[in-house]
Amino acid sequence: MNAEAKRGPEPALVWVKSSYSGAEGGQCVEVAAAPATVYARDSKDTTRAPLAVDPTAWAAFIEFAAR
Fold first, then answer.
1. What is the model's pTM?
2. Distance from C-alpha of 8 to C-alpha of 16, rounded to nearest angstrom
3. How far apart (Å, rounded) are the C-alpha atoms in residues 53 and 37?
4. Where are the domains of the chain?
5. pLDDT at 1 over 70
6. How high is the pLDDT of residue 4?
């Protein structure tokens, strides 16, 4: 998966847009990692609060999704 990094409104977070999110619209997801939390948000509506999960739970989700 290639990623395109861009800064969000939170100066401490760097948001990375999934390369699977096409430029033509559709499902677009961005992720930002902090030491104790991983954040996920809809890149088309960055004003909404992101989903916040524990890094261990995020790693388990990624492992499951990669199957």
1. 0.72
2. 9
3. 6
4. 3-65
5. no
6. 53
